[in-house]
Structures are given as C-alpha cells and as structure tokens.
Specification:
This protein is of the alpha/beta class. It has a domain at 12-129 and 331-392: Rossmann fold (3-Layer(aba) Sandwich), CATH 3.40.50. It has 9 helices and 15 strands. The chain has helices at residues 47-55, 146-160, 164-184, 189-223, 241-248, 251-264, 266-272, 300-322, 339-352, and strands at residues 13-22, 25-31, 37-40, 80-88, 91-101, 108-114, 117-118, 131-134, 234-239, 283-288, 293-294, 327-330, 356-360, 374-379, 382-386. The protein has a 6-stranded antiparallel β-sheet, with helices on one face. It has a 6-stranded mixed β-sheet with strand order 8-12-13-3-14-15, sandwiched between helices. Strands 9-10-11 form a 3-stranded antiparallel β-sheet. Helix 2 crosses helix 4. The longest helix has 35 residues, at 189-223. The protein is globular and about 70 Å long. Residues 1-6 have low confidence and may be disordered.
C-alpha cells in the first residue's frame, strides 16, 4: 500500500448504471450525474437491490454476501448482468460483471469486463472504482462475532490493497485442505508440512496487510478527530497472536513461529475439527475513544455513530491512498439518525466530494440536501427522477 501523493483525490462517479435480470429488475438503464443520489420508495421496491448491484462492481459477493446465483431475477434465465460507466475528469471507463452461461450452455460463471474486454478476475474492478458501504445488517458489528469484524476490516484492506482478497482466499483454501488431511488421519507428515508452510506464508501476509490497514485507519481517524463531532472517533486495534508476533519481530520470525504452532497443534486441531490458531481468528477491537469505552458496551445510538464515523474514515482513506474518490453506499442510514447527526452526515458526504447513494422511504429526510443531490423514486423495479430544489 502506498500513498498516491495527490493532495486532492480525483473525482470518480457512475454516469450510467444498467441492470439485466438482477433481483426484481428485468432491465434498467439509469443515467446519473456526479451528485449524491437519493433513492426513495416503499419497502420492497428495489432500493437496496440497486445498492447491491453497485456493490458487485467491486470484488466479492456484494453487500448482502449473497451467492451469485441467488441475485438472478426470479423466473429469469438464471443469468444476470450489472454494467456501468465510470466517469472521471480524465475520461470514462465501461465496466461490467455478472453471471453468464458457458459456450456449451451447461454452466454459469461470473464474468468481468473492463472496456468490453474480459478481465482475469474481479480484482481488476479495483483499477476503476472503490466502493464503500454501510447497511442495516452491520448495525450489530461491534457486539457480533469476530468474523463480522474481520470481514469489515478485510473490505477496508481490499479497498486499498487489491491483492488482499486473494491472499485471504488462498489461506482459507489451504487451511481447509489441512483440516481435511487431519480429519482423514494418518496423513503424510510431508504433505502436512508443505501445507503448513504455505499457510504460514499466506497468514503472515494477511496479518501484515491488516496491521498496516489498521495503522493507516487509526491515523486517518486521528487526523479528522475534530472534523465531524457528531460521529465520535473510534480507537481501533488488531487483536491476534500472529499480529502480536509481527509487532514483536520480523515477518520471517513470525512465519517460523506460526509454522511451528501449526505443527504442534495437529492433534488438538484434529480433535477439534478445525485450525485453532491463525489469522482466521483475529479480531478488530473498537473503542469509543472520547469515552474510552468498548464499542460493544456503548448505547445503540453511540454504536451507530461510531460505525458511521468508521465508514467515513474508510472512504477518506480509500480516496487518499488510491487518489480517487470512492462510491459510498448507505442503506436506510439517515432515517435512524436525529436531525443534527443526519445533517452532519450530509455535510460529511458533501465534504468527501464523492458520489454517495442513500436510500430511504421518506423523501423529507433528505430535504437538507436540496438540489445538491439527484433524487430518484423507486417503485416495483422502476426508477424515475424526482424534480426538487432547496437549500444545499
């Protein structure tokens, strides 16, 4: 990871969005401008589906973490597509992804295209766009299991290090292979040693990337601690044995130590049916910095404010390190804030100079944005622009 050195990130936005057989959308061609986008309409109209479609313009399984086949339109052909034009002051790039049938028609596979040319993986989308999101399912992040916080941290890390997702996936595949060998019993020690060597190399790389990301995120939060008082700064730290080993010494020493730990825990891991040590057990520790209180012990409102502050810091960090403003997807966030925090959120988004997408059922909630935002009405898989004006 490296800082782009640019004092002002380049503005990046979607100038068009097209969907085919995605969730409740048969087809959709949506022109957009560079302003934040408000999506209003009744529950079940398809507002979150639009955000989910945009989230697939980044690596991974989208903001719902759905199986790729599950986002295909019910009663549709089983395939789907999301395409967009990414605009910058320097020009535009067409990107797209979706499930398509193989030439023999027997399989459906995810495909990614950049300027209509096939890409080798979804990681290539990071060359064009960064996407950050906050959805209601994340409201329990601080009190939930460590796995949720690891996924949250890995999304932040991926937004500034495109190789991180591959490393995490490769480690998890190697770990599953070791678990299978242990479960079978009488595994060749040489095979186990080879897998453990691979796991150690990947584990240290994953832990090191997470440590650097947390360090950068903490610095970003500290630099803007007084900028958005409505969203208190969080104190973030990474908890895990491998991370402690990296903090205490060189990566090679941490790698050797983890490899020895795997060898020594084979019997215990076999009995447990899983690997009992490694970066798959690390946790992101979050505290309410002004109160010096664990985030999980804060009130529901304080947790929401902390989470919004973290997502805003993630967006600022992604912009600073990539040199381009990210898209920020906020699903049903504004309606659950009091008036002061809601207006502070709008001000923070405008200060980021990014294209944000906000959903809600009540258009009045977004009145403070006035014509600083593009307003769209969503109803039964249809989208229409709303003409409005007011204070920015």
């Amino acid at each position: 990871m490296s800082d782009s050195g640019s004092p002002s990130p380049r503005r990046t936005w979607l100038s068009s969005l097209k969907l085919t057989d995605f969730r409740n959308y048969v087809t959709l061609a949506l022109p957009l401008d560079a302003r934040p986008v408000i999506l209003t309409g009744p529950n079940g109209a398809g507002k979150t589906n639009l955000l989910e479609a945009i989230s697939f313009l980044s690596p991974g399984r989208g903001l719902r973490r759905a199986a790729l086949a599950d986002v295909a339109r019910r009663d549709g052909p089983g395939t789907w597509a999301v395409a967009a034009t990414v605009a910058t002051p320097a020009g535009a790039t067409d990107i797209g992804t979706g499930l398509a049938r193989s030439p023999d028609g027997l399989e459906v596979q995810r495909q990614v295209r950049i300027d209509h040319a096939p890409a080798t993986s979804s990681d290539a989308l990071l060359d064009c766009l960064r996407v950050v999101w906050l959805v209601p399912a994340m409201d329990g992040l601080f009190a939930g299991p460590p796995a949720d916080r690891r996924r949250f941290l890995d999304r932040i890390t991926l937004s500034i290090d495109r190789r991180h997702g591959r490393r995490v996936g490769a480690f998890e595949r190697a770990m599953r292979g070791r678990n299978r060998l242990l479960a079978e019993g009488n595994a060749d020690p040489g095979w186990l040693a080879a897998i453990e060597t691979e796991m150690a190399e990947l584990a240290v790389a994953v832990a090191a990337a997470r440590r650097e990301c947390v360090s950068l995120l903490a610095a970003e939060i500290a630099a803007a601690a007084d900028a958005t008082p409505a969203f208190p700064p969080a104190a973030v730290a990474l908890a895990g044995t491998l991370e402690q080993a990296l903090a205490a010494g060189a990566a090679t020493a941490a790698e050797d130590e983890y490899r020895r730990a795997l060898a020594e825990s084979r019997r215990a891991d076999q009995a447990a049916g899983r690997t009992l040590v490694g970066p798959h057990l690390s946790d992101l520790a979050v505290r309410h910095a002004p109160k010096d209180t664990e985030a999980a012990a804060c009130s529901t409102g304080e947790q929401k404010a902390l989470l919004i502050g973290l997502v805003l810091a993630q967006a600022r960090l992604a912009a600073r390190l990539s040199g381009e403003t990210p898209l920020v997807l906020l699903d049903e966030v504004a309606a659950h804030l009091d008036k002061a925090r809601r207006e502070a959120l709008f001000e923070a988004l405008l200060a980021l100079d990014c294209q944000a997408f906000l959903t809600g059922t009540d258009m009045g909630v977004f009145d403070p944005l006035g014509d600083a935002a593009q307003a769209l009405a969503v109803a039964a898989g249809k989208v229409a622009e709303i003409s409005r004006s007011g204070p920015a």
